[in-house]
């Protein structure tokens, strides 16, 4: 848990300071050239500061122990934080899509200078660096919140790359900046959809895959000599830990101690193989319903 918190803090503060500097550089370049795409990119970086603050807050809440109101802990706070990040991305995308359409309707042309080149290249390199660290931290900790923050940085990096391409051809077409703004907005919107759809699915409760169910049944059966007919498997992801409930079928003549011993073996096997905390409900096997 301490290790996870260490990565969350590092990723959060790295993003806050990095994007504070980048947003200032890109906004300055955007104002000096009149580029809506660069200003949009600057605000995208500024929104990263907000989402990084959400990462820090979400990480702190998720570490709170279980209490009377939240008996399964506060781990899902990370998923809620990810949804907030996705919503903020959607708002940013919509705002700049409207701005791009307005600029296109006015036939405004943008002239890029050397500073625009420098600011955009710095943005690409810095954001890709923050992206790689966020993904690395997410892989080390299994945090969906850090992964969502990593995708936020990646959209910044890609949008800056698109702008760099546009700067290279900007002098040839008056509509370059407007089109770039639309592309950046769509990229941000897609990242928003990817984050929100995934986290809503997890929060609502998604069905485990057939491969996972098969693996669970095989692991449980290996722990026992007699057939257990494991079924009715439910898996509940609470962020910091995962719980599983299931049913098994045992001979009706079996003693309570014997049934309890079998359940304990299965629980230990599931915990060792998958890390799940399991609750097992034994029921008598019958010829009509084996």
For the structure shown, list the relevant keywords.
290 residues, mainly alpha
- The sequence of SSEs as H and E is HHHHHHHEEHE
Let me know the largest β-sheet: 3 strands, mixed
Question: Termini separation (Å)?
Answer: 43 Å
Strand coverage percent: 5-15%
Number of helices: 8
Order of strands, main sheet, comes to: 1-2-3
Residues in helix, %: over 70%
**Structural class, from helix and strand content?**
mainly alpha
pLDDT < 50 stretches: none
* Radius of gyration from the alpha-carbon trace, in angstroms: 26 Å
Q: What's the shape?
A: elongated
Helix/strand layout:
Blueprint: H1 2-33, H2 36-62, H3 77-105, H4 114-141, H5 144-169, H6 176-204, H7 210-222, E1 231-237, E2 242-250, H8 256-274, E3 277-284
Parallel strand pairs: 2-3
Antiparallel strand pairs: 1-2
